[in-house]
Amino acid sequence: MRVAKKQTTPGGRALARMIGFLVLGLTLFGLVMVLSATSVSGVYLEQSLLFQFSRQALWAIVGAVVFLVLSRIDYRLLQRLAPASVFISTGFLIAVLIPGVGSNINGSSRWLTIGPLTIQPAEFAKVALVLFTADLLTRRGKKMDRADLTIRPVLVVLGVFGLLLLLQPKLGTVIVLTAVALTMLFIAGSRLDHLALITVLGVIAAGVLAYSAEYRRARMLAFLDPWADPAGFGLQTIQSQVGIASGGLFGVGLGGARSKWGFLPHAHSDFIFAIVAEEIGLIGGIGLILAFCLFGYLGIRVAINAPDRFGMLLAAGLTSWILFQAFLNIGMAIGLLPITGEPLPFVSAGGSSLVSSLAAAGLLSSIGRKAKV
Amino acid sequence: MLALLGTLVVIGGLFSAVLVDLQALRPERYQDVGLSQRIRTQTLSGYRGSILDRDGFVLATSTPGFEVVADPSMIEQPGATAAVLAPVLGLEPSVVETALRGSGPADRFSMIVPEISDVAFQQLEALADDEAQRGVLSGVFVRRFEDRVYPNGTLARPIIGGVDPDENGTYGLEWQFDELMQGRSGSETIERGVFGSITGGFHSVDPAVEGHDLILTLDHRIQHVVEESLIEHCQETRANGAQAVVSDPRTGEILAMATVVRNENGTCSVPLHNATLVETFEPGSVLKIVTAAAAVEQLGMTQDTLIDVPASVQVGDVEFFEHGAGHVAAPYPMSQIISQSMNVGTIRLAEQLGKETLHDYLLAFGLGQPTGLEFRHEARGRVADPDDWYGSDLGSIPIGQGVTSNAVQLNAAYNVIANGGLYVPPTLVRMTVDAEGESHNVAQQGSRRVVGGATADEVTDMLVGVVEHETGTGSAAAVPGYSVAGKTGTAWKVFREGPDAPLTYGYNGNRRYIVSFAGFLPAENPQLSITVVVDEPQTDNTAGRVAAPVFADIAQYSLRILGIPPGENFVDSGDLVRGTPAPNAGASGITETAAPGSEE
Fold first, then answer.
1. B187 lies in the same domain as B229
2. Residues B274 and B184 both lie in one domain
3. Burial code of B577-587, b = ≥16 C-beta within 10 A, e = fewer?
4. Which end is more exposed in chain B, N or C (fewer Cβ atoms within 10 Å of the end residue's Cβ)?
5. Digit-coded pLDDT (tens) for A38-65
6. A243: contact with B, CB 8 A cutoff
7. Are A335 and B18 inside 8 Å of each other by CB?
8. Residue A91 distance to chain B (closest CA, Å)
9. Is A15 within 8 Å of A373 (Cβ atoms)?
10. DSSP letter string over B102-136?
């Protein structure tokens, strides 16, 4: 299939531009917040004010290149890479578990060290799953009532990824992947009774999983009652809420958050939202929620107006991924959801998350350029 | 796709609602948690002031120190921590490790070193700043403390008092001026994070105010010789104890104030209590100056006025006898009544004065009144209201029985005569000096006229006779080169013969005595006033042989220390080395005519 540039539409290009500006804004905002959030811990723990910030800035440049490249190429070229991406991701997810290859930090094997870079294969498994599902459900679009041909292969890939991710362990990513897969199946036209059954089974599985591991059970209990263990598993939930509440309407001012003085662990990554809400207040918190809602709205517009089914499914998958992850993160920060450790897309510190989020946005932009708006 | 959009709106709305609740509607509950974990207040303690004598000689002071303590429950590797600490503290690593382990991993407190040197303190500070050692040293703390130091041991301790381990005064001046000397502790409130003081965070300092220094009227040199002299005489006479007050009569400033008591092993030493203010006794004949002064002032008598002195006089239900079997009933000049301490003679004076007048004079001389020193547990003594006097009291009170006084009151009463009739209240604290070096006065009573100057001169002459007249009771108080005015007091003590027995003065052959000598010198220009009290001396029981020599001892030392020149007619006979104490000066060959029991 050959696609010429002229297939883009003026409305589509405008849509793509809006996506570009939105994620550029979010990324730059994230850089500022990462600098703020790490300004204290950096000096205290790393003896460098810019330690985290400079790495994040480098990753942002890498992400920007990825975004620009992906937004310019024809997304349909990627359809052919879908199966390969699954195999490559599976390989990485296995590699990360092998002692000596993967880096074990704090009891979790989540990172692959390649030269000076450490990457999280879990982030790229998200891209792979969306690609694979969009491709599969495009090719079998006429057989959507055949669960064995549509739902089953998706669940197999999800199962393999999920199992490998649980071994890291990284439950949050599994939840995101599952939600994204179900959303794509739903949009692609799978039978609702099948999806309902899968959802019920999924929830039960999640419940079992949550109680199967000691730390997950403790986290779940701490989520239900953080004050039962305010210095232990309840610490992050409480400290995050303390920070957010301290922000009030207009915040304590950029750079002024108290949480980052050692009270809130992972303030720059998992809990960057709390720092935003503390420093910029309710204005900043709701502003950030609205920014992600805007991203969702743009993504949905891209999906609705996508030139083909693959583009539609891909756009829907990417959008739901970013949104689910954002809501999982914000919900955790405001104490509404248990702690899962998924970063806030574009904003949280973390190179792999930033690059994969920008890759998703780039793909979305690429589809948007050809949207029939 | 619309479902996706709907989900988006619902979740976005829900999250926004939670944020509004958390940040706008009910932020306090979480904000309070934040504040309580960030706001830290630490006490800034002001140094406790020092206590100095009149020349700035340090009697009590506080020295800062640093101790090293540990919380064993926080120390993960005692061995590693000990290896870092031991060289700095100059101890064996094994010793430090044992201390770091405390009584076990649950122990929360263990003393490592109770006091470290300044050098070690600086080294520990450097270690604490060293990033690499921070983990190793967590659980080890350096704490500042203050030690109260009394550089001269027991010198003036009954006056100075003491403090508890937290430097709160417990007795003496340390207690009395506790608030002033402690100053005010301040506080520093800072907003702290785990990583340190929060930049731009809340910070307020309520600075500590350092305590005042107390500048006493005491002269440490005189205080020292007084204590030494009392100890020596207390042991020599096997007394229960002894007291002395030395003051400058012109200002009321107390130069020395000492108490010694006998220990079970027979030696005497300085106790913790200041008996000169907290204990009272019936002073006996030493108090006759009040009766004499009143008679001169009120009745226009002089030292030469003749008074009929019979062998005895009946007052109320008690018959008072003039002492000595050889007393001849005849008119005696008033000077002799005083110099020989005649009881009946003195009572005859009192009968003419009446109890109201005598009572008023006693109060005017400061008896039964607070001294104004406000010393802890100060006893003001008892001078009964004339309406409450027993029938015999007009006989006993003029001669110093039936009233009680403390040694400082007695000293102040003699200062009235020394000062030409002016009562100058005693002072012990000259001033206090705050942290800025500003001096502050201590509130005190004003002075007041008690008798006229002529009266005081007349009484002074009689008191000189006590020491200089050949039959005077106080010859042993004489100081070569100086004219001494003073009076002996040999008083009966009330006591119980058994635990349940009634209070009694005993009977002849079974008496207990408290003897005293109060006086001042040079008589023509008094600059030194000394009061000596000896409780139950065993070797002798007359004031003239027990208390007067102590007076002479103290006087000779004090004169030399203060550089008070002798009178014009002093001729150095050469048989006394000036300034050298003459122990028991005059004790040999000089007898007090007052026999025991006759001085009631």
1. no
2. no
3. eeeebbeebbb
4. N
5. 888 877 777 777 888 988 999 999 999 9
6. yes
7. yes
8. 32
9. yes
10. TTSTT---EEEES---HHHHHHHHHHHH-HHHHHH
